Amino acid sequence: MSATTVTPPRRAVLAPLPVAVLGLLAAFPPFAADMYLPGFPAIARDLRTTPLGVQSTITALLLGMAAGLFLTGALADRYGRRRTLLPCLALCALAGAVCALAPGIGTLIGARFVQGLTGAACVVIARAVVSDATDGREAARLFGLMMTVLGIAPVVAPLMGGIVASAAGWRAVFWALAALTLLMFAAAVVAVPETPPGRVRPLREPGAPVGGLLRDRPFLGYAVAFALAFGALTAFLAASPFVLRSVYGLSTEAYSLIIAVYALVLTLVATAGAHLVYRHMPHRLLEGGLTVLLAASATLCGLALTGALPLAACLPLLLVAVASLGLVLGNACAPALGRTPRAAGAAATFLAAAQFTAGAITALLAGIGGDHAAAMGLVMTVCALVALFVVATTRGTMDVTRRERLDTGRIGIGSCDQPR
Question: pTM score, two decimals?
Answer without folding.
Answer: 0.80
